[in-house]
Give the backbone structure.
Amino acid sequence: MSAARLLCVLCVFVVNAHAEEWRFTTDRDGEVGLTIHASVPGSNWGKAGAEAVVLTLNVDGRYSQDVTLFMGATAHDYTVLLGPLLRGAHTLTYRRNERYSASGAQSFQATFNAEVLDDPAIARAPVVYLRPDTAGRFSDVPLFAWYEELDEPSGRVLQFTVAFSNEDGGTNTPALFARWGRTLDIEHLIRFTPNGPIFQGRNHKETPFRGRKLGQHPILYDVTENNNFDARGRSPLRVILWPVRADLSRHSRELLADQNPWLYRIMSEELAREGKNAIVGDPRDYLYVEAKITAAYAAASFVAGGATSDRGNPKMRIDRDGWIRTAILLPEKKLPGLTFRCDAPAKPKDQPPVCGIEAVTKAFFLDADYRPGPNLLEWKGPPARLAPGESRALGGSR
């Protein structure tokens, strides 16, 4: 963001059905980012019928996108891209989308900033059309985007990822906490590889992208209940999130939620609105654990006191390598000790089952405002190698 050049700042407006234009000027050609600093008094993402205002944007008379103002009365920066614009004067036309906004969410307060961006990666951030069955339902909304520059055997890869507020299909809610440490749905959308762009298609299939673009921005459609994509589709709503650059070489992807704890709040409010708290409890009653493990050919879980991350269900164990998150329901919010456990996989695999653990970097509870609390435990080895049935104690609360 340091390379961005601030162009315009607008004073606060109380927006209603009659307010519709904001004018700004760019001093050079380039990709333009827009920050909407907004609040919606009376709205609440966790309350049915009052979830959010959906704001439809047009730039210079052309449809741009729809921005869901999901943070209620809390002022929040909604950051999106307007795409490539030529140097000169521009007009942003905005209106409350009457069809897809909640009836209990009416006027909103907003300021607007526009910036020409120098980061070349931004020009390839994807345009995402929302899944049609989520329009007006305030479900599985794209919240936050980032990109990574990865060194892989094939060469340098540019990968774009989005965090959705939840997923309506795929992994069930208890298993999301157990296997992923959140009910946000984090999905990579597209990877620009030396052999061309590849997007995440249905059933998580890596698929060459040959679709349409807005400038250099690939256009993708959310087409499955677990938020996989297609280069073709139909949808009334789309968004072009402004991604931040991320380095996740030493952390799990959930680090971005730790750094932006409002993501935990929206995740939790959507769970409450959909009645899923009756199944999984309050997300603030979970211990969130980040660790680097090996478990691709086995099944791993964590134990804290008398509670286990897998809740005694073999299908809720972790079966992948690398940096992971899990969450353990501990309503007493105390960590007497943490243990890593290895089990055989639920289904036999083509390699001998083995688990390993290299490090635990975080173990925390969310506070009353959904912010990560103090780190209660770190463990840095030496690395342990475990067979099914074995476990390793990792220490207690600091």
About this structure: Residues 1-19 have pLDDT under 50 and may be disordered. Helices lie at 173-180, 255-259, 262-273, 277-280.
